[in-house]
Every structure is written in C-alpha cells, then in structure tokens.
Amino acid sequence: MKDIVQEMMAFEGIDQTSIKCMGMGIPGLLNPDEGISIFSPNFPDWENIHVVDQMKRYFDFPVFIDNDVRVNMYGEWLFGAGTGYKNLVLITLGTGLGSGIINDGKVLYGTTASAGEIGHMNMYREGRPCRCGSSGCLGRYVSAIGMVRTLTDKLEDGRSSILMQWAGNDRTAITAKMISEAYDQGDSLAIEVMNETGELLGFGLTNVINLLNPELIIVGGGMSAAGDRLLHSVRDTVQNHALKLSSRACKIEQAKLGGKAGMIGAAAHADSKIRPTL
C-alpha cells in the first residue's frame, strides 16, 4: 500500500507538503482511533497490524483508517445513492459481506467499532465454516465466493450448466460474473442459484430492517453489478417476511459510485478528522 501511494504521488508529480491527509479503508475488525487493524478474515496471519504507524514511517501527513465498508458507506452517503438520508444501511457484496450503518444522521460504530458485521449473522446452526470462528454466517452464502460455492456444490451433486462448458470443465474457474452471464442466457442452474442467493440475502436484510428500521438499504460491492438479477428476489423476500410498516418505508437500491465509493469515502472521512484542527 505504501509503495502504491508513493507511485501515485510520483506519477502525478505531487509533493507530500501539498497533501492534507490520507484515509484508508481496511477490511475486518479494527481500532480506528488507534490506527490498528485487529483481524481481517480474508488476510491470513494479519493480526494487530498498526497501519497508521506503518504509514507514518513514510509520510508526513495525517493518516486515518476505518473499516473498508464503512468508508464505502461514507462515499455513498455523502456523494452517492444515500445523499440526503438520515437512516440507511450500506452492504457490500464481494469476497465477503460487510455493512455500514447511519442512524439518525450519525455513523454507528458500537463499543469496539465493529457494529454492522451483518455478514457474520448466523443463518444456519451448523453451516459452512467461517474464518471468524463460527459457521453458517450469512456472508459465506451471499458473497461472490459464497454464490460460486453454492453453484459448484450443485455441480458436484450432478447438476448440469452451461458454465462447465465456459469454464473448460474446471469448476474452480467459475466466477460470480459468469453466473450472471449464464443467468442472462437462461441457464436453469444459474437462475436457481441467483434466486437462492437473493432469497437468503433477503432473509438477512429482513432481520436488518426489523432491527434498525432504515429508510434505505444500498447494495454495493463487485457483486452488486448483478443488479435486478439478484435484487428482485431480495425485495420479494423482504416484502413477504419483514414487518410491513418497516419494509414499506425502506427502499433497497443499487450503489451509484461503484469502485470509487471507498476511495471517495476514505478521503472525505479523513478530511472530516482534520477539520476541527484547522
């Protein structure tokens, strides 16, 4: 990360003295006040890494960290799909499932800055193992990796799909994007898996709506590109199972900023941290 920042500065001809601050989005559990990344389930052997101290060795400007999904939420809240809303939840669907929460116009952090770990909501008492130490976590099923796993499990059970032809009979080559493309081609297994994934995510978001009563849920991350292929079954499930008063007041929308949301949000969050000292 340090090398990339230095390369960007050199490419743009930017001197350190012209930079006010830097924001970083770090996946997993962290202590944003201390600048420490405590645990990241997708980074093996990454524990108690003092990210801010590491950056201070090379940069003179202030550095701030926050959860990667939370900085995505800052971006969408301030500049994207969430502009003007006071009660919203942003979820990102990628290698995992994370979320950020705005409640009455304030970002919800919780006691240990780990509020919003919706991806670790238990959906099955004994399900797929998760690196968090539990099993059956929602993120193990509705993330891009989880959806691919659902499809490949069905292939192992003898089901057929055009995806095997596309992947050269190598199940490990199948991606979430390929499942979306097979869905568009009318592949029955791809449609089944997409609907199952959306339904399970809908049950997870039903719990979120009943608990937090948001006016908007934003779906972001790489897998959000599936759009209504995924979201139609999410919305149907929420409509059928969430509390009627709460579900009618809550929209479920696709994120607007795409891959830029985290960068924009991290920069805006860092800027807000230094403004009181200006």
From TrEMBL:
Its EC number is 2.7.1.2. Gene3D superfamilies: 3.30.420.40. Keywords: Transferase. PROSITE patterns: ROK. GO terms for molecular function: glucokinase activity. InterPro entries: ATPase_NBD, ROK, ROK_cs. Signal peptide: none annotated. It is an enzyme of class 2 (transferase). Belongs to the ROK (NagC/XylR) family. This is Glucokinase.
